[in-house]
């Protein structure tokens, strides 16, 4: 096989692997030099001439002419009679350059060359891919669903790179079909053997932060700073924002008129409820804002324990705790303080109030648990609520709630 024909067959990798021709030729030279070392023991006296424009190459073996019978190193010396077969006027002491055809290396060596080339190109591609995606960690990336598996969704980008979206990195309400475009952040890149594994996440706080940068011009321009993001993916999130320009209302700018700006972010996150609050270095005020939509009466802080007692009127307690306890949990994560809710209310009422668990013989345990999830654990705390509001905030039917209220009212009427 002629050199140029073999090079052309190897050049198919250029298109398959999106590798530039100059890099391909550099890899080729390295591969051929390794083959020459195996065949001749050294490649020091070989010249490899590569023409990246034409995609061809030549291999020349350089030896010194010595008298017949005086050859000590066949790799670097050639006898006079052998040299004159190449060119009849050679004399002892002159240099001979002889072209080496690849066919002279033998069929097995050529097959090994091809395997070595494939390996080197894959190694090059994987190194470049690893570096490329390492630089993209923390950035939003879009790819298409290629295959949906029980534990992960396999995505492919425009360049054919495979990206993994594990089940635990998906929002609970996520549902994907083949061909869907998916957005997330590149969370990590790991080398599995020689192949990089690219991991995407849609549950990371960083994803929400980057969505703010992408969707809200003032955040992108740096006029508004996202100070901290905390999330319960698919359920609720709190985002603290700040601006160094007093003329800008950071919360208003992020939410937009009637929620127009944040709507796209909420939809992207499976209707995740997002509270945007003004950041402040005033700890009491920050905790008060973090517990929104509840109205806090006062806050007592213990800096040593990084804890705070939050005093609220009875009707505000359930709002502070939130559905499933999400609101108070996120407020604690946002502020960095362990928050303890203290109820304020009518002392007489509190003294004759009854824990819901006392009604376990008349009310099912799972119903009591549903009320507890939104911070309602006593009879009076339930009776003060609006029925329609309870239907919205719990997984209970209106008929069940009315039945519970009837039982509770009977307790106090008796």
UniProtKB/TrEMBL annotation:
Pfam families in the record: KH_NusA_1st (PF13184), KH_NusA_2nd (PF26594), NusA_N (PF08529)
GO biological process, one term: transcription antitermination
Compartments where found: Cytoplasm
Record flagged with keyword Cytoplasm: yes
Keyword set includes Protein biosynthesis: yes
Main location: cytoplasm
InterPro entries with a match to the protein in the record: KH_dom-like_a/b (IPR015946), KH_NusA_2nd (IPR058582), KH_sf_prok-type (IPR009019), NA-bd_OB-fold (IPR012340), NusA_N_sf (IPR036555), TF_NusA (IPR010213), TF_NusA_bacterial (IPR030842), TF_NusA_KH_1st (IPR025249)
Domain Transcription factor NusA N-terminal: from-to ranges: 6-125
Residue span(s) of domain Transcription factor NusA first KH: 202-279
GO molecular function: DNA-binding transcription factor activity; RNA binding; translation elongation factor activity
HAMAP family in alphabetical order: NusA_B
PANTHER family (alphabetical): TRANSCRIPTION TERMINATION FACTOR NUSA (PTHR22648), TRANSCRIPTION TERMINATION_ANTITERMINATION PROTEIN NUSA (PTHR22648:SF0)
Function, in words: Participates in both transcription termination and antitermination.
The name this protein goes by in its record: Transcription termination/antitermination protein NusA
This protein's encoding gene: nusA
């Amino acid at each position: 096989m002629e050199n140029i024909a073999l090079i052309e067959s190897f050049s198919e990798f250029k298109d398959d692997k999106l590798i530039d021709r100059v890099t391909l030729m550099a890899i080729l030279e390295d591969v051929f030099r390794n083959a020459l070392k195996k065949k001749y023991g050294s490649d020091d006296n070989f010249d490899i001439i590569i023409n990246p424009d034409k995609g061809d190459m030549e291999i020349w073996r350089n030896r010194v002419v010595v008298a017949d019978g005086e050859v000590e190193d066949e790799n670097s010396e050639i006898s006079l009679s052998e040299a004159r077969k190449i060119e009849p006027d050679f004399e002892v002491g002159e240099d001979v350059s002889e072209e080496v055809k690849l066919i002279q290396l033998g069929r097995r060596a050529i097959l090994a060359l091809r395997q070595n080339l494939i390996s080197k190109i894959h190694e090059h591609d994987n190194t470049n891919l690893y570096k490329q995606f390492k630089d993209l960690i923390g950035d939003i990336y879009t790819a298409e669903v290629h295959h949906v598996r029980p534990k992960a969704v396999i995505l492919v980008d425009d360049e054919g790179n495979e990206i993994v979206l594990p089940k635990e990195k998906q929002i609970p309400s996520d549902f994907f079909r083949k061909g869907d475009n998916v957005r997330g952040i590149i969370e990590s890149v790991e080398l599995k053997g020689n192949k990089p594994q690219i991991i995407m996440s849609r549950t990371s706080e960083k994803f929400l932060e980057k969505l703010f940068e992408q969707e809200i011009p003032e955040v992108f321009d740096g006029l508004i700073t996202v100070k901290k993001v905390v999330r319960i993916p698919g359920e609720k999130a709190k985002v603290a924002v700040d601006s160094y320009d007093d003329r800008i209302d950071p919360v208003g700018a992020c939410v937009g008129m009637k929620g127009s700006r944040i709507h796209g972010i909420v939809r992207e996150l499976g209707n995740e409820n997002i509270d945007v609050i003004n950041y402040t270095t005033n700890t009491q005020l920050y905790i008060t804002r973090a517990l929104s939509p509840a109205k806090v009466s006062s806050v007592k802080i213990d800096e040593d324990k990084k804890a705070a007692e939050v005093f609220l009127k009875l009707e505000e307690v359930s709002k502070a705790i939130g559905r499933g306890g999400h609101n108070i949990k996120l407020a604690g994560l946002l502020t960095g303080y362990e928050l303890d809710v203290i109820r304020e209310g009518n002392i007489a009422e509190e003294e004759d109030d009854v824990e819901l668990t006392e009604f376990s013989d008349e009310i099912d345990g799972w119903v009591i648990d549903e009320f507890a999830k939104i911070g309602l654990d006593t009879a009076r705390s339930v009776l003060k609520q609006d029925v329609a509001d309870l239907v919205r905030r719990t997984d209970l039917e209106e008929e069940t709630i009315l039945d519970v209220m009837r039982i509770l009212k009977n307790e106090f009427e008796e």
